[in-house]
Amino acid sequence: MKTMQWLIKREFWENKGSFVWAPTILAGAMILLLFITLGISNSVHNLQVQYSDSSDNVDSGSLVTSNVNTTTDIDGHVVHSLATKLAETLGNAYMGFSLPIFLALALVIFFYCLNGLYDERRDRSILFWKSLPVSDHITIISKLVTAGVIIPLIAIGIGFLTALLALLIGCIALSVKGIHIFGLVFSAPEVYLAPIQLLAMVPIYLLWALPTLGWLMMVSSWARSKVFLWAVGMPLLSALLLWWMQKIAGLDVSVGWYMKHIVSRLLLSVLPGRWSDVGLIDPEHNINVHHSAFNLADTLHEAWMSLGTVEMWVGVIAGLVMLGVAVYMRRWREQG
Amino acid sequence: MNATDKSTAVTATGLTKRYGKQTAVDNISFDIPLGRIVGLIGPNGSGKTTTLNALLGLIPFDGQLSVLGFDPRTQRDALMNEVCFIADVAILPRWLRVCDAIDFLAGVHPKFNRAKAERYLALTKLQPTMKVKSMSKGMVVQLHLALVMAIDARLLVLDEPTLGLDILYRKQFYQNLLEDYFDEQRTIIITTHQVEEIETILSDLMFIREGKIVLSTSMEDFAQRYVEVMVEPDRLAAATALGPIDQCAVFGKTVMLFDGVAKEQLQMLGETRNPGVADLFVATMKGSYV
Asked: Using CA of residue B17, residue B23, residue B27, residue B30, what is the dihedral sign?
């Protein structure tokens, strides 16, 4: 356990730039952009623009439908009712503001896994690490935990703080216009539930991402050079070959199925929320999701539902097998 | 078995390593007792590093190998508690800081002595916040050596540890090793090309050529066995009859190297002296690159 802790720290030392500084700088840039957008929209005085800018995932239609319930006889009532709805949606969806951070860290995870085992061979520092009483499987597990748990936790931390800051800025901007929703927004439990809901998705993320994490680490432990080309090129080439065989030999294979269930699982499963693509989730439930505004509780529900799918577990097994190959390669492959 | 385990650091029997058709290490057998400093010497590509890699469990191989009683193939994790190695210079990762390196080793290595490492580092110009990438080659080796010497390992393997260092660093390296680290409980195996420099610190010598051990001797035996004679021209025939293992012409005289011929006998042939390891190395390895 103590060794694991130091190994993870070690990964952190090596990758501080991409784990912490990159998302922090991105968050800073996003907040800056928010300020600029608010500055512009302030002069336009258009509530709608401001509203959809500060939260990506909100279906702006829901704002329009919400007007049905409002009483229009007194101006003050409209504003008040609109404010309630606005506060509710903001509270539900403010985390969507941080989507770029989550996507950026998915990219970080991708390249971290792809380079981790390759770089230590290239600069021969693997000989230093292997001179210590740290086994190959502990090392690989530490890299897996870093990619599948630690980076997602960092993403959630930075993502939450950024979204919260954006929400605060949005509320201030609204109050400048005379719409005071501070109390409504910050007393909504959704605001505080959101990071916890995201944390509850981390286990699903790890399990779902396993085939990609395993694939990238396997290629990383095995390729002599050009890891990216191998990792991305092989699945795509195999799909191309399949497509060609289908065209030429009239083989009865579905390239679309192959792309979705093999290629994309090997390469894209590090993207958050891809499990909702499994397609085995109750379609009626899906419709419900689309009807209401974006809702993290539904996303979380969907995430854990994916544990009931075969695709999830086939991926987990495939991922573990590939990680096993990576351990074997690190143990036995010739150095230098 | 246990008795030999206690007194031998390494036992190799029929150790063989093939790369495809190429045989890098060809069925070698040797014993290295505890408390020795062994120089494994051979030309480039002779199988030195392959042998060391086999000892350290870094590569698969054929034959039997016992290192401190462990099989490096199946018991590598346990073995690495007792063994330490410097495989090459500049293999410390570039992003590593001195203080992080110490923290990390203190965290993962049960036999690492932090105070000892800090004491060694205090004797150098290395600062705790320095990163490997900002160090000179000599400093990287100093750091690596400080880390390794602070580990209470029973076997230390050094593969070309001083490659690319200037003579000041090299001298200091071996001096530290001998004065501060080595004792009769430890065993050190060194490979190097700078034979002359380690000659004085070695207790045993192993020459390896084309995957075979061509000479294995202790330094005491070495001094007894080998004699170099500057043969007087009129004694040439008599000298040749004694079967020199090597000869060359210097200033019109013939210099011959003998193995295991009585010194008194040789003194009659001409001026004698004790050859260096380098002389013997050159004599033994003649034709290696042909």
From this structure: negative
